[in-house]
Amino acid sequence: MESMASCLGGMEVPVIGSDSVKWFNVSVASSSSSSDFDSVIAPPLTEDAASSCCNIGDPPAYFIWRINKSCSNVLEIVQFCSFADFPRVGLRLQFATALSPYAYICKNQLSTTSRNPYMLYALTVTGVAYLIRLTDITCYGTCSVMPPNEVLELNLFNYCDYGAITAIAATNGCLVIGGQDGSVACFRLGMLDSSAPGFLHELRVDSSFGRLWSLMSRRTVASVKDLVCLDVHGRKLLFVLHLDGVLRVWDLLSCSKLLSYTMNASTSEGARFTKLWAGEITNDTNLVPLAVLLKPDLEVDGEMISLYNLHLNIGGKTNFSIEPSTMNISIEGGVIIDVKVSSNKIWILKEDGLVVHNVLGLNESREFEQCFGLQESFVAEQLFQSSEHAADDLFWLAHSLYPSAKEQIAPRVTSIFLRMLFLPDVYHSSVIRATLQDHNKHFTDSEFHSLTADALKKEIVSVIEHEGVSRSPLSLIYCWKNFCSHYIDNWCNKNGPCGLLLDSSTGAIGIIRKSSVSLLRCLEDIELLAFGCFDELGEVANSKINLSNNLEREVLFEVLRCTNSLSQQLGKGVPALFYQSFFSQPSISPEEVVGSFLKVLESRGTSSAAAALHVSELGVDAAWDKGIGDHKFLRKFSTEIFLSLHGLYRKAVTWDKVVDVILKYLNFLVPQKIENKSDCKAVLDIGTCITVQVTSQVAKVMFESALDILLLLSYMMKLGGQINMTPEDVSRVQLELFPLIQEIITEWHIIHFFGTTPCESPTMEDFSSQLSLLQIDTSANRRSWNEKLGKCDFTLAFILLLDQQNTFEEGVVSRHLPNPNSLIAPVHNFTSWIVWGRNEDESSSFSIRSTMLALILLKHGQFDAVEHLLTMVNQNILKEKISSSIQGVNNEWCILLHLLGCCILAQAHRIAPHTSTEKKVNEAISCFFRAASLHEASKSLQNLSPESGLPHIGFPDHTSPGAWKLHYYQWAMQIFEQYNMSAGACSFALAALEQVDEVLGLSESPITTKGRLWANVFKFTLDLNYYHDAYCAIISNPDEESKYTCLRRFIIVLYERGAIKILCDGQLPFIGLAEKVEQELAWKAERSDVSIKPNPYKLLYSFEMHQNNWRKAASYMYLHSAQLKHEAALKDCQLRSLVLQERLNCLSATINALHLVRPSSAWISPLLEGKPIQNPSKKARITMPDQEADDHLLSQRLDTCMDIEKLENEFVLTSAKYFLSLANVNWTCNGIEKPSPNLVELLVHSNLYDMVFTVILKFFKGSALKRELERVFIAMSLKCCPNREISKKHNALLLTSSKDEVIHDSIDTAHQSKGNDQWEALEQYIEKYKCFHPRLPVIVAETLLCADRLIELPIWLVQMFKGTLNGRWGMAGSESSPASLFQLYVDYGRYPEATNLLLHYIESLASLRPGDVFRRKKTCAVWFPYTTIERLWCKLGDLINSGHMVDQCEKLRSLLHVALVKHFKQLNVDSDDVMSSATS
Q1: Per DSSP, what are the bridge partners of residue 12?
Q2: Mean pLDDT for all residues in the chain
Q3: pLDDT value at residue 623
Q4: N or C: which end of the chain has fewer CB within 10 A?
Q5: Distance (Å, rounded) from C-alpha 194 to C-alpha 253?
Q6: Rounded distance, CA 67 to CA 100, Å?
Q7: Rounded to an integer, what is the distance from CA 77 to the centroid of its chain?
């Protein structure tokens, strides 16, 4: 852009929406054979071609057609009107073969039907011409093939025999082609049938000569290079340009030649003429402007455009004449893309830019030449691609602005690049999609078109983060630089210029790009100054800036040169970073930002931090070289700017003069107030879109111009005395200029913000409300807002424009495109309305005006924009109050704070499901409190419009300050409550409570008001899970009814949230509420399911235990046990065990609680304690008289008192039932006094020995206890030998089912097979319980021998019989003595064991030590079971007599005989000794 700065006269303005057209693909069938497509006779497509057809039909329509060289058989057509929005649909016609670079669209004047109002002429490279009758493009949505009756096809190869086609033209009802041999043929295509006479006319130079002479003359005519059809005063003229410069004009209707002119008379020999352009005729001069492209010399590169005028002399007979060339324009470098010519201007579009010449100027003069800036240079500059170091400059500026927080650089830089990418002048849907595809982000068409601006930004950020993950901020800059470089390349490839659009009726000029359309506009006066075009603003500077003399003009231009030098030194990142600082959190003041920028001028890249970064990124050597280069560059700039400022001082003599000039210039930058009296309604049309675009462009220039002045003045103040600035000069700058600059920057920043920030899309939960708010009327124009909100190309400015009833266009809305000079006036009107409003608004300051704008945006849900707008204005008001202490700003400040609070609150509600809202809520609370505290706030807020969409405050006109605050705080409380922001609602409820005592004459009593407010405090704190605060609100509530209602709700919510334990931990002070809490808990317990967690009875137990009410605690826990007992009966085995275990816990807790009570009072009456409790606040639907209820309870009571012993009995039985349930055995208990007879058998059968002995010891005493122990050990003994036949003697021990229980499953066979485990259990328990019944070993041994006579008794069991006497006293002993074992052996035929046992004890007796012999000789000292011995002897004899085991039995008898003989001898001796000792 800098290269064009000296002659820049205009800019390109993209038409919003033209980059996102959805195409309807329609194929055009061909009747020609495939052999007709072999030869190429028409000019092929070498570059992308495009053109336009303007003012077709009524209302006038504009058509744009394009042919892309990458898809040369497809013709793209877009139809639009200036008085409507740019269409989002277009037509793609797919032909069988490639097209020649020409198409023509016109009104269908050959048919009176309105079905096909347009006609399209096209030609393929194979010579097939098409006439297609078109309807509105929107009608082709469901069409895939063009209807045959709407397509007329003509194969020119069948009609022409004079060579290749070199030029094509068409007009309504006529197609004209020019040949390589100079011939011209006219086909009445669409007007006549191809077989009708006169369908083909060949335009010859002289038709009266013979055929031979015609052939000869035809060879002398140069080839046709271009054809142009033009309507001139109702006549259809054809302009034919030949290669040798001969221009012929033909009348197409009469096929007669009107003019022949040779245009190369003034040029050198060998010139070649290649292109002809003709403009529309002017009615006042009857001139047709012509432009001819020629190459003067084949040996020298370069082309020239010569301009001519065709004169029409209208009289009795129309005569045509051409003046010699009025201007020759040399084309230096760059390929010409397109040219448009009018009566006073010629527009030349080249690859490197667009140039306009005033054709009324002098020949060969460049005095009237102007360049127009194209989007390529603007996009490159905005994305920091205009120079190699632009992005690096941005980084160093950001590094200076955030030196202590390097982690802030990356998000700030990312925000800047995102904002730049989504500027309306930069954003292009197909380009951004192609760039994402370059980075492996692929989308389908539907996916991409459904993306909102926010969603698309997230996709871009994910790409950058993926490439720059875990890298330094400088590397992030390189990632963005690479991304933007791809974006620029895709922009040039996919959206380069390919044609011009000219509306001769208004002079509107536009550029047709590959995938968009744009218009051109002239620069605003301030833009000419900003771009350095000082020479063109002599009168402007003197009149509009109000400069009094040439000295002031020179001073101003010198000041602007200094600002340009300063901005070039700092780089392109200064405006971007300064703009972004308005969005920083925490906010950064403009003074801090400017101070950081100026530090860069002192140490650009030479600071220690910068040096370290250079070394880490570039290496030591490269960093050293860069540091030296930066230092030299910095010293050069410092010297030049220092000399320039000194020169400025010398020229102005005093700094006061400079300040005066700058003040005038700043007043020129202030948005001007303009009276707009238009009565036309605003519509969403192309003019509106252009107004928004131009507004953002002008605002950008204004913003940057004011910023440049701010930087220059700050730099001058920093130099101070070095440039002879006195303290008075510095003070004047600070007091007069800085506030004005700050105001200008703020206003233009907000205007630019409106013009470039996409609207927020409505949230899903608010969609219905958004529809109702946006559909202000029933017009389709307003209804289309809904689908545009959230899109990248629909900015906030559209909402502001379309919300107004009147348009900002001057005069009646035009049905044609606006000319370049008329685009600035609507911008002035729009900016004036934004800053000053309309005449009837009577807003005296921008702060008041900002509240009106905020109301409009709030009405349409643009909360982020409102927050930014009001935050900026709020900061300015704060500075104003600090500097001037003006109370008058209170009124506007109050409304501003109120709106800001509403906006932030709505934002917090919107982001609540995804992120934390604490900060937003606190900000909203602060805004509302500040608004309420201002003087006369009630009067200010009454002026809010009810149409704003905000909740109505609704308070009386005349109220005291206290009453106003009470009302306002309650209103704020309700708003926060509606948005589910309980923290804010609680704050305002507490604030309202403080105002109750100060307000007199309330409509309700103070106690009622306080009760209601405390109830709200309770609700909000409960919502926040602040349970202690909620309980404090309950006990603080003076209204008893409200207090108890809150208490009930408190308990219910604690139950629902699982936080009910807070009532039982002893931390809450139950001041007079203990009984109420107990009643609520008991009422809840009786009506709650047993599965509720935590169980209410447990809570009551804990509650009473903390209150030291142990009996009540035991009663509630026993009631829970009873509840579980009923529940267990309904469950299956698996669930029943869980319920029984819980019941055991309840009984254990009951017993433990009663142990804390005195023994005389350690009992409970569960039936009376469990009497149903009626909720105090609720009435039972079915009531029973008290006396009847008491009688009912007494009749059921019988003996309901439960002491510890009964509870322990129930605990034991419940334990048995629990363990049986674990073994899948269901047992029913009918009472707690005594277990059922089958319980012991079930427990033994389930191997639950601990439990069975617990039951026996608990419920049986004396002989019953021994009997039960015998039964248990008999069963246990039998389990040790399960494979043996059980004696009939013990059949009674087998388990049987009773009518009171059902065995669902047998004992696990795995347990039965574990014999070792059974033996170990038998040994363990017989050792433990033989003290209760000494005969248990005998019972066990007898059972084992009965079950298996051959079983080998375990050693431990035999040892129990032998004891520790070792036979010193024979076989005497307790019930389980050796004699008992001996008898068992004899009874069950175990004769060898019996004999060995007897021999063992006889031998033991005989082998006593001398000390024991004396004891043995005492009376009755030794005993043996002689009767059993005799039985053993007899049994052995019987066996011998029967012949069974004779040898073994004789051996045993022999051993027994010998032992007995010795034993008896010993007894005889001992007896004699006893007798002798007795007689002596």
Answers
A1: 520
A2: 80
A3: 65
A4: C
A5: 17
A6: 9
A7: 38
Q: Which two tokens stand for residue 1118?
A: 């026993």
Alpha carbon distance 514, 495 (integer Å): 5
Match 């009767």 to its residue by tokens: 1427
Long-range Cβ pairs for the range 588-595 (8 Å, 24+): 588/401, 590/710, 590/742, 590/745, 593/401, 594/710, 594/711, 594/714, 595/714
**1433-1439 average pLDDT score:** 87
Does pLDDT of 1057 surpass 80?
A: yes
151 or 1059: whose pLDDT is higher? Answer: 151
Q: Within 502-607, where are the H helices?
A: 525-530, 538-543, 550-570, 573-581, 590-602
1220: which residues sit within 8 A by CB, 6+ positions away? 1226, 1227, 1242, 1243, 1246, 1248
The DSSP line for 919-987 is HHHHHHHHHHHHHHHSTTHHHHHTTS-GGG-SPP----SS--HHHHHHHHHHHHHHHHHHTT-HHHHHH
State the Cα–Cα distance between residues 551 and 555, nearest whole angstrom: 6
Long-range CB pairs of 1049-1053 (<8 Å, 24+ gap) are 1049/1018, 1049/1019, 1049/1022, 1050/1018, 1050/1022, 1051/1077, 1051/1080, 1051/1081, 1051/1084, 1052/1084, 1053/1022
Residue 244 sits at the vertex; the CA angle it makes with 240 and 250, to the nearest 5 degrees, is: 20
Residue at 489: amino acid letter: D
**How large is the average pLDDT for residues 107-113?**
77
Give just the sign of the alpha carbon dihedral 599, 602, 604, 607.
Answer: negative
Lowest-confidence region among 380-384, 1005-1009, 1334-1338, 1412-1416 = 1412-1416
Per the CB < 8 A criterion, the answer to whether 810 and 678 are in contact is yes
50-101 residue pLDDT tens:
998 888 877 788 999 999 998 999 999 999 998 888 898 999 999 999 999 9
Strand partners, 79: 63
Residue for token pair 């600070």: 734
Please tell me the predicted confidence (pLDDT) of residue 732.
Answer: 92
CA 680 to chain centroid, in Å, comes to 41
User: How many CB atoms sit inside 10 A of residue 821's CB?
Assistant: 11
Q: Which residue has the higher pLDDT, 437 or 1377?
A: 437
Residue pair 1330/1323 in contact by the 8 Å Cβ criterion = no
Cβ-contact 824, 694 below 8 angstroms = yes
For 466-508, write each residue's pLDDT tens digit: 886 556 777 888 889 999 999 999 999 999 999 999 998 888 9
SS3 877: helix
Residue 946's pLDDT is 62
Structure tokens at 451: 């993306």
Q: DSSP letter at 383?
A: T
With a CB cutoff of 8 Å and minimum separation 6, the contacts of 1120 are 1085, 1095, 1097, 1098, 1101, 1146
User: Do the beta carbons of residue 746 and residue 589 sit within 8 Å?
Assistant: no
Instruction: Report how far residue 288's alpha carbon sits from residue 286's, in angstroms, rounded to the nearest whole number.
Output: 7
Measured between alpha carbons, how far is 534 from 1458 in angstroms, rounded to an integer? 153
Pairing of strands 369-373, 8-14: parallel
How far apart are the C-alpha atoms of 1062 and 362, rounded to whole Å?
96
Q: Count the alpha carbons within 13 Å of 419 in the hemisphere toward its beta carbon.
A: 20
Which residue type, as a one-letter code, is found at position 1217?
K
Rg, the chain, Cα only = 55
**Pairing of β 1226-1227 and β 1202-1203:** unpaired
Q: Averaged over 1303-1330, what is the pLDDT?
A: 64
Structure-block tokens of residue 788: 């545009």
- How confident is the model at residue 1144, as a pLDDT? 87
The pLDDT > 70 percentage for the chain reads: 80
What φ, ψ does residue 301 adopt, rounded to 5°?
Answer: -70, 150
